[in-house]
Amino acid sequence: MATHLTLHERYQIDLNLAQGLKPTIIARRLGRGRSTIYEEIKRGQFKGRYWSAHAEHRADAAKQRSAANHRTKPAALWDWIEASLVQDHSPAQIVARLPCVAPSQWCISAPAIYKRVARDRRSGGALHLHLRRAHRHDRWRYSSGGLPKDRPSIRERPAHVRNRRRRGHWEGDTCHGSHAAPDCTLVAVERKSLYSVLRKLKRATAPETADGLIEGMRDLPVHSITFDNGSEFAEYERVRDCLHCAAFFAQPRQPTQRARCENTIGLLRQYVPKYRSQKKITQEQLDEFAERLNHRPRVTLGGRTPHEVLFNLTPVRIRS
User: Fold this and answer.
1) What is the DSSP secondary structure assignment for residue 140, as one 8-state letter?
2) Is 73 helix (H, G, I), strand (E, B) or coil?
3) Could you give the CA distance from residue 154 to residue 151 in angstroms, rounded to a whole number?
4) Distance (Å, whole) CA 147 – CA 233
5) For residue 41, what is the enclosing H or E element?
């Protein structure tokens, strides 16, 4: 089956809607997903109703705008761009120069050139060295926060940790409030169950952070922890040895590699607002916040709570 709806399918949607059929029934007749039909009806609205001709016209226009259907750039153009980069011309300067030296149908944008340079760098090329900010955006900085240079990378993490198939694999980060106050909250989240551990930190120093992790997770199943690259996790080896677990570090500026922790911090903001001092927040209050988060039903867990998933408990059923 084709990925996109055809003109015939759009005509059938138009005809069935005119007959008063519901989108669910139309989806079943066409062998399409219900959400696909709903989105198609929404996009194909014209003068208050769905028109198949109008929907087809919009789809054709979208195909023309799609980058997948654009013509590739001539090899001669890329050769000239790379030669200009080697002469230390910036992408903006190259774009401005192109109309003066190339056929009128040739065109390029500065972002496209930067993407080309990024691909060249990943393949071991040296074009990025000719940019004026060649060394500004290294994604794996070994001088980050005074952490050891040989700290274990997330690239070394086993596949079963990434797939969240087993319990006991955690993510760690800190949640800060006001920049003027040093008080913050240490957040640890179990990747499979979303179970949270919150610890009060007077100051996000490496010793205090390590003590908080060890104290808060001592009685929980811990097989690995994936840390942020902040200097507060510099004593990760002590945490690893005390909890008898593995330790990994995410890449800088890659929050999606710790998405569970980032999402939990977002939920915690309901109780600990951003930019507000956490000086008056006590450990007892954080325990209450963690209790609420851990007993809150989650859609991604099928309606179960993090506490139930982590400890493999059966939800208490309502008695009739």
Assistant:
1) S
2) coil
3) 10
4) 8
5) helix 34-43
Tokens linked to 144: 């980050």
**Are 232 and 187 in contact, with CB atoms under 8 Å apart?**
no
CA distance 241 to 238: 5
Cα(13)–Cα(27) distance, integer angstroms: 9
Long-range contacts of 232-237, Cβ-Cβ distance < 8 Å, separation of 24 or more: 232/145, 232/174, 232/201, 232/204, 232/205, 232/206, 232/208, 233/147, 233/172, 233/206, 233/209, 234/145, 234/146, 234/147, 234/148, 234/206, 235/206, 235/207, 235/209, 235/210, 236/151, 236/210
Q: Are 36 and 5 in contact (CB under 8 A)?
A: yes
pTM of the predicted model over 0.70: no
> Residue 294 corresponds to which amino acid?
N
Are 264 and 189 in contact, with CB atoms under 8 Å apart? yes
- Bridge partners of 227, per DSSP, are 172, 249
Tokens 């760098």 locate to: 121
**Residues 6 or more apart from 297 whose CB is under 8 A from it?**
303, 304, 305
Burial of 50: CB neighbours in 10 Å, binned 0-12, 13-18, 19+: buried
pLDDT tens, 242-265?
999 999 999 887 888 899 999 999
Interval 35-47: pLDDT, tens? 999 999 998 998 8
249, 232 contact by CB (below 8 A): no
